[in-house]
Amino acid sequence: MDGVLPDDTMVQSSVGQCLYHPVRTNEESVEDTEKLVIRRFEARFAPVVASWVRDDAELFQLTPTTPPPLTPEKVLAWVRPNGRAYLGFQGGRKVPCLYGELNPMRTNDEHLWIGHVLADPGCRGQGLGQVFVRRLVESGCAEFFAERISLIVFPDNTPAVRCYERVGFTLNGDEHHRFGPKQRPYRMLRYEVLRPRGSAGGSLYCGTDAQAQPRSAQISPRTPHGQRAIHPDGSDTDAHDSGS
Ligand SMILES: CC(C)(COP(=O)(O)OP(=O)(O)OC[C@H]1O[C@@H](n2cnc3c(N)ncnc32)[C@H](O)[C@@H]1OP(=O)(O)O)[C@@H](O)C(=O)NCCC(=O)NCCS
Q: From atom 37 of ligand 1, which residue's Cα is the shortest distance away?
């Protein structure tokens, strides 16, 4: 999910983890990769990004801790001091059509999480989201030397789940968060990719790797595998304190 950090309190599944290797899948042609240019986020595009959320329900799926309506100021507040926000530009256009963030987990700079992946409704469903997320992962490996990249998503957000799976993210377990004034509980899916030990980064493959263990510090008695929480406010925390 975006704006929500993967959670230390998650219940890990036995699903195999995804290792990072060539980021290009068989389906992705050279044309695909060239039709989207990734640049660092610029504040002047915050109003454009804010205009892409179609309704309150979509905003909740994107970031359950950002109250509606989404405003440029709230978009600017997503960008974390130690994180990086990116924009995707289609076919040399001057106005972006995709937004997303790469943020380090607080206790482990080599563990990143992807937040607030959002596309202009007019460009959705064309595979651009997948190209964009792949580029984020490539950037995480090449620039941040990421060993692990995580995200969390609501199970019923089918386009997002499909997009992440097509990139190569694999289901790593469930996370349970509470959102809203009534602190209603929600189940979320945690997806991850890992970079194989000893690799230089920038490439991705999927498969299980028994050696690829979480490197995050053990910070919660409810985190059997020592992983930290990813929360909708864009922070990873010691305790299960997510909420809006
Ligand atoms: C998530 C998001 C960025 C994806 O961007 P995108 O450019 O549409 O993604 P892609 O086209 O690369 O991939 C979407 C995939 O979902 C599929 N899909 C879309 N709607 C679907 C539906 N209702 N049922 C099944 N599959 C669906 C598409 O066919 C595509 O899969 P394919 O390549 O196998 O055909 C975009 O949907 C978005 O901005 N959503 C709103 C914000 C949000 O929820 N962000 C994610 C928060 S975790």
A: 159
